[in-house]
């Protein structure tokens, strides 16, 4: 008899890449349906993941396994958010990758070994994780895309901007020059990563 299992079962459930992918795929659907009213999923969503994994892979997956793995994903997400919040790290939105130079990588991995899987490597299922465990993400009926937002709402409180005003030109110049320096820094960071 297996440790902590019911009689007659001796095999532990193991998460594999295909089951992880299915787990995230289902929970994204559930979040979009509105079954994640706060920071947790409804029991029906957790049970659905376990049932679909059993049906597709013919392995016994319980709600407890799903809840434990959801905790693991939340811990990974917390690490990702912590790293992205620290200085010295860049973000490649196309590759879904936290970037840093070799010196930063070596020093941070010495003090925080758990950061290593998320540095200078594409983060698998980043967008799905954002929906499943991200706290600031709207779900269900509250989720809106740019297409859903009516920009021409006839807002009477809006004030037209006088673009010929000297103060406006000064602000535009400051904003555009700060954008240029950000681009120069990004290009410099990319060249360091390439080396």
From TrEMBL:
Region span, Disordered: 170-195
Matching InterPro entries: Myb/SANT-like_dom (IPR024752)
A Pfam match: Myb_DNA-bind_3
Domain Myb/SANT-like: residue ranges: 14-103
Name of the molecule in the record: Myb/SANT-like domain-containing protein
